[in-house]
UniProtKB/TrEMBL annotation:
It catalyses: a quinone + NADH + 5 H(+)(in) = a quinol + NAD(+) + 4 H(+)(out). It comes from Bacillus suaedaesalsae. The keyword Membrane applies. Keywords: Cell membrane, Membrane, NAD, Oxidoreductase, Quinone, Transmembrane, Transmembrane helix. Belongs to the complex I subunit 6 family. It is a multi-pass membrane protein. The chain crosses the membrane at residues 6-25, 32-49, 55-77, 89-110, 138-160. This is NADH-quinone oxidoreductase subunit J. It comes from the Bacteria.
């Protein structure tokens, strides 16, 4: 086995473990830390794929900014710390069936994938290639993403203000 394969296995295991921990942990801060481990290991996988720009963006945007926004959103909104009722067996079967269907679909989608016909020089100047593609062909979706993020930020502030008004009225 090559070193690259071992690195991929370790990074994949950390990503999966972080996702599983995020779902199963009860404290929000611990959940966010598990999510950060997943994001950073995914960035490591991007480095193995010679996508250094995407790895840097993964660390800067997801591990940094999105995680901080999630923590601020949780801190700004008021939520009750009551435990959720135990889900029924039917709901669990439905979730397991959905996950299985997704896994089977992904397997058959990747099984016949032909990667031999791809361009060999994608790793050369990939930051420049991404910049050219992003700011020529995909400028409208790029700007719409910034508008969606702005709307989410304004929505979080409105929710926080609404909770403050409810607290003031209750006292």
């Amino acid at each position: 086995m090559s070193g690259e394969f071992i690195a991929f296995l370790l990074l994949a295991l950390v990503a999966i473990a972080g996702g599983v921990l995020m779902i199963n942990l009860t404290k929000v801060v611990h959940m966010v830390l598990a999510l950060v481990f997943s994001f950073i290991s995914i960035a490591g996988i991007y480095v193995l794929l010679s996508a250094e720009f995407v790895a840097a963006v993964q660390i800067l945007i997801y591990s940094g900014a999105i995680t901080i926004i999630m923590l601020f959103g949780i801190m700004l909104t008021r939520h009750n710390d009551t435990s959720e009722p135990v889900s029924s067996i039917g709901k669990r079967i439905l979730v397991i069936g959905g996950i299985s269907a997704f896994a089977i679909t992904m397997y058959f989608g990747i099984y016949d994938l032909d990667l031999q016909n791809q361009a060999k020089d994608l790793h050369i100047d990939n930051t420049k290639q991404i910049g050219i593609e992003l700011y020529t062909k995909y400028i409208i979706p790029f700007e719409l993403t910034s508008v969606v993020l702005l709307v989410a930020l304004v929505g979080a502030v409105i929710l926080a203000k609404r909770d403050e008004k409810k607290e003031a009225n209750e006292e």
